[in-house]
């Protein structure tokens, strides 16, 4: 068992050994371009993914910030 913040390190260890890792869809897509790792969806137990957006308390919400917040809400509904 190991913990690494580096996705490239995780995928390297998995591809070179008999280890497992958990990757999100984007990380898996990138990793599969460079390694021969295989993937399986975890069904049970169900896993939650959290999305967060930080904004300054000292500023105001610009139209761009509001649009990004709305897009995150829309994308979260798809997950």
From TrEMBL:
* Highest taxon above the source species: Bacteria
What is the official name of this protein in its record? Answer: LysR substrate-binding domain-containing protein
Look up and give the organism this protein is from: Acinetobacter baumannii NIPH 80
């Amino acid at each position: 068992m190991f913990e690494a913040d580096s996705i490239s390190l995780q995928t390297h260890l998995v591809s070179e050994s008999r280890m497992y890792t958990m990757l999100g869809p984007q990380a898996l897509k990138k990793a599969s371009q460079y390694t021969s790792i295989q993937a399986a969806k975890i069904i049970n137990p169900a896993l939650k993914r959290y999305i967060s957006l930080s904004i300054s308390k000292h500023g105001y919400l610009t139209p761009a910030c509001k649009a990004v917040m709305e897009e995150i809400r829309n994308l979260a509904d798809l997950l």
